[in-house]
Design brief:
By secondary structure, the chain is an alpha+beta fold.
Length: about 160
Amino acid sequence: MNPASSDEGAQPTEATRNRVTLRPMTQDDLDAVIAIEQTAYSHPWTRGNFRDSLNPLFDAQCLWLDGELLGYFLAMHGVEEMHLLNITVAPGRQGQGWGHMMLDALSLMSRHAGAQWLWLEVRQSNVRALKVYERYGFKQVSIRKDYYPAGRQQREHAVVMSLKL
């Protein structure tokens, strides 16, 4: 996961933030989503992964500014919990607060759905994302050993984090 909403980079003005829209991801969004996904990650989700997530068991949302896709997130409903599967800010828009804005939206959506907890996994090496999640209030719960592919038949641990809503 790559929320990348640290304090670095130019922060958008209130007028810019007021032009932002969050709407459900559709099949028509997948080309733009895949373009960001492939530039943001060494092991990106496939079109099939995204397509399979466009169903009622998931919340898949896109954040847009004047026709530009800023980022997206996908979360899966559980019993009194929501599991964040993917949150990504376009690399050129990282550090501007968009990841935090999407986490706010996800938290509200999760509460509205009756969730009491928000869960996620993040690569242990993704220090930037870990800091964003910690600042947001997530706490480390455990480590999933060898969870993520890391290239050349190697694996990387995932940090499991949760947030009480």
